[in-house]
Design a protein that fits this description.
With 518 residues, the protein is an alpha/beta fold. The protein contains 19 helices and 19 strands. The strands form eight sheets. It has a five-stranded parallel sheet, with helices on both faces.
């Protein structure tokens, strides 16, 4: 796709000038080897190129300030090491005029992730016996002496790009040091987000091409919506089918066989190909059976094999799972006329929380699910605007109001979904409240988070390996229960965190742990 864009740009007229081969550069692992070698050796030369084509991931994890600057007439450009100050960067007068993001970047990797143990190399004792960050000079000296070239090196490459990225990280350590020291995470992360690009007086236009942007960011973000009405002229027919499976329980053989036969019967009655979507894995209240290999799903593999065994032609259907990459960013199913949704799918609260942080938006969980489902349905030919008829078969466990909202959006070009009032609650609180009986524990868990901030991230990210230790006398002061301080007073809180959140809350007896017998 990237090479196709390059090939089609060459020869086009831009501001009265014909674009030449040297005016366009694709920075991508599939790009010409010599061009990538040149970029990694002399990255400052990209500021002279008129058009850069970069993946979302590389834009936010590589030399972002180099990509944003534009000095076409400077034969020897010099770019300073990025200090993390986006406001200062975006108000410079030598920026590119337009930053075009094709679809909303949601898979945003950290610029850097490294073991928290490395902070020991960059720390020194203060007068009170605690730790403080070393000076910038000492940080670089310690890094070069003890880390560089070893297994814990930030970047393994020896090219200029890797060297510059190392310098960026080393320069930002003092900025993030206190935050990292206050957390009990195993890793330290630095993130750059799309919202970082937006500042008063900025010298660039940031434009996001998003097919359902009116749902995802249209009403709540400070990104201005430029919409096309109507967006759809296809006829989308919604039809319900009986569904007897649950994600929380493995079906017995007889129940699953009935499900397979119903899907097969449905596919045999269709005109055209069908995209079948089902859950990725099983998820019970107290456990989750995950497929270890990325991109693989126990549900999809089993259903695909069963349908083939039943005699269904493999050329007439494709099985994928909710959340797979081909459910939101591909056009390979544009010649399919049907989509079958097997099972209602609810996204974890942490997903919409990450979106709000990345775009400084107020997008709620309902709106995110609505957006994702529209993206999923649009993988088949609905967006071809050919006026033809497409059919969405949905399992009977889908909420009727939700399906009606999809119908209104695709057939009437209207948003009628009544989402819950956009919450300003942090992700951890949204998740706790979403659990039956969880609201009554919000205040207590909030106090525990103030004691140990790492608990917030563990709840938000559904980290069920996290364990929190808090001495009995400490929790007695934070969450007083009256009477004698004893573990039994906190049994319900301990049980809720273990069974509903998967987090072990341990309360050692402070006297025994602090003053052990000789």
């Amino acid at each position: 796709m990237y090479q196709w864009i390059v090939d089609n740009l060459i020869g086009e007229i831009l501001h009265g000038e014909t674009l030449k081969l040297d005016d366009v550069l694709m920075i991508h692992s599939d790009a010409d080897f010599e061009k990538m070698k040149e970029y990694k050796t002399h990255p400052e030369q990209v500021v002279r190129i008129r058009i850069l084509i970069i993946t979302h991931v590389r834009f936010f994890t590589d030399l972002i300030n180099y990509f944003l600057l534009y000095e076409p007439n400077n034969p020897n450009p010099v770019v300073s090491v990025f200090d993390g100050d986006f406001k200062k960067l975006m108000q410079q007068d030598n920026l590119r005029k337009y930053i075009l993001l094709d679809e909303t970047p949601l898979f945003l990797r950290p610029f850097i992730t490294f073991s928290k143990g490395l902070l020991g190399v960059f720390s020194e004792k203060n007068k009170k016996g605690g730790y403080r960050c070393k000076s910038q000079t000492d940080i670089k000296d310690m890094y070069n002496t003890f880390v560089k070239g070893g297994s814990l090196d930030f970047y393994k490459g020896t090219d200029r790009v890797s060297q510059i990225k190392r310098d960026v990280v080393l320069g930002l350590i003092p900025k993030y040091y206190s935050e990292w020291m206050g957390m009990k995470d195993k890793n330290c992360n630095i993130h750059f987000y799309p919202s970082d690009l937006i500042h008063p007086g900025m010298g660039s236009h940031v434009i996001i091409y998003e097919g359902a942007g009116d749902v995802l960011l249209g009403k709540s973000s400070y990104f201005k919506l430029v919409d096309i009405i109507p967006k759809y002229n296809s006829q989308v027919d919604f039809r319900e089918f009986t569904f007897g499976l649950s994600r929380k329980h493995r079906p017995d053989n007889a129940t699953y066989a009935l499900f397979v036969k119903s899907v097969r019967s449905l596919c045999c009655s269709l005109l055209g190909k069908a995209l079948i979507v089902i859950w990725k894995d099983y998820r019970a209240d107290d456990e989750r059976t995950l497929t270890k290999e990325a991109g693989k799903s126990e549900w999809t593999d089993k259903l695909r094999e069963a349908l083939l065994t039943e005699g269904l032609a493999g050329s007439n259907f494709t099985v994928t799972y909710y959340g797979a990459s081909d459910t939101k960013s591909t056009n390979v199913y544009r010649d399919y006329q049907n989509i079958i949704l097997c099972g209602n799918w609810d996204l974890p609260p942490s997903v919409s929380g990450q979106l709000r942080k990345a775009y400084n938006s107020k997008t709620g969980q309902d709106e995110y699910k609505f957006w994702y489902t529209i993206q999923l349905l649009s993988r088949i030919g609905i967006r071809k605007n050919d006026g033809l008829k497409y059919t969405v078969y949905y399992s009977s466990d889908h909420p009727k109001k939700f399906i009606k909202s999809l119908d209104d959006y695709l057939n009437k070009n209207k948003i009628t979904m009544k989402s819950k009032k956009a919450t300003t609650d942090p992700v951890w609180m949204v998740r706790v409240k979403s659990i039956k009986g969880g609201s009554k524990y919000v205040d207590k868990i909030g106090k525990l988070i103030k004691y140990n901030p790492a608990l917030e991230k563990a709840i938000s990210n559904n980290d069920q390996t996290f364990q929190m230790d808090i001495p009995l006398n400490i929790i007695g002061g934070i969450i007083p229960m009256g009477g004698k301080k004893q573990r039994s007073n906190y049994k319900r809180l301990i049980d809720f965190m273990k069974t509903s959140l998967g987090i072990a809350l341990n309360m050692p007896n402070n006297r025994k742990s602090i003053n052990p017998k000789p």
